[in-house]
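Students often ask why inverse folding is considered easier than folding. One informal answer: many sequences map to the same fold, so there is more than one right answer. In these notes we will look at a single instance of the problem. The structure comes first.
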């Protein structure tokens, strides 16, 4: 049985589109049953509605408190009989109660190789640090931001001439490949959390060293 997945967005929604695309494949272990946007003007919401996807806006500004907003999100997830939640550019900090209710069932994607460069402006943080490789991480959501068990990561080279504006789209292309793969691992039960770390039963991967730039 496919896992029922909700995607939470606040803006552009390109990762949502990648997940929606993956979810259309018959053999993908998850189906997208709800898209919830915290902003009524999110570009991703317009796209989702155009596509006839089950999309809802829950404008956070119309709720009295963070808890009240989270309660409405929770109710929508329960109503849609959601098994897993995928945050995709969702720009709200969630209350501790909400995070606990969905712990082990909620994923996020962050555009850095965590635990490096948590929080805001990760591309600028990577450039400021002078790293030669950066990338993206899909992780389970825990109370501390960008700190939950890591499901999967993808790496891209950082070039000398990069700015946040040139690095971000390179990482974003990796995000669009990584997130559907990571969600499939979790939805199929091949990635499970044990002792705060994700153990993955996946096809054997290469032990080759990755170089940046390619020698
Ligand atoms: C992505 O870079 C994601 O890693 C970060 O926010 C951005 C969202 O982009 N959390 P999009 O809305 O999925 O296009």
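Output (designed amino acids):
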């Amino acid at each position: 049985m496919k896992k029922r997945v909700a995607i939470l967005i606040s803006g552009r929604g390109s990762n949502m589109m990648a997940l929606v695309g993956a979810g259309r494949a018959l053999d993908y272990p998850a189906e997208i049953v709800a898209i919830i946007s915290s902003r009524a003007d999110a570009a991703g919401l317009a796209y989702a509605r155009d596509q006839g996807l089950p999309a809802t806006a829950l404008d956070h500004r119309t709720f009295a408190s963070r808890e009240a907003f989270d309660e409405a999100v929770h109710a929508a997830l329960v109503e849609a009989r959601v098994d897993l939640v995928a945050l995709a550019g969702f720009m709200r900090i969630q209350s501790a109660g909400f995070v606990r209710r969905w712990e082990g069932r909620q994923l996020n994607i962050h555009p850095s190789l965590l635990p490096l460069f948590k929080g805001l402006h990760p591309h600028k943080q990577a450039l400021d640090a002078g790293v030669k490789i950066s990338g993206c991480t899909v992780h389970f959501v825990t109370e501390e931001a960008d700190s939950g068990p890591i499901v999967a990561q993808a790496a891209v080279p950082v070039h000398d001439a990069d700015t946040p504006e040139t690095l971000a789209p390179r990482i974003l292309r990796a995000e669009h490949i990584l997130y559907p793969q990571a969600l499939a691992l979790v939805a199929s039960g091949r990635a499970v959390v044990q002792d705060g770390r994700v153990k993955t039963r996946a096809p054997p991967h290469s032990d080759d060293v990755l170089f940046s730039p390619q020698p």
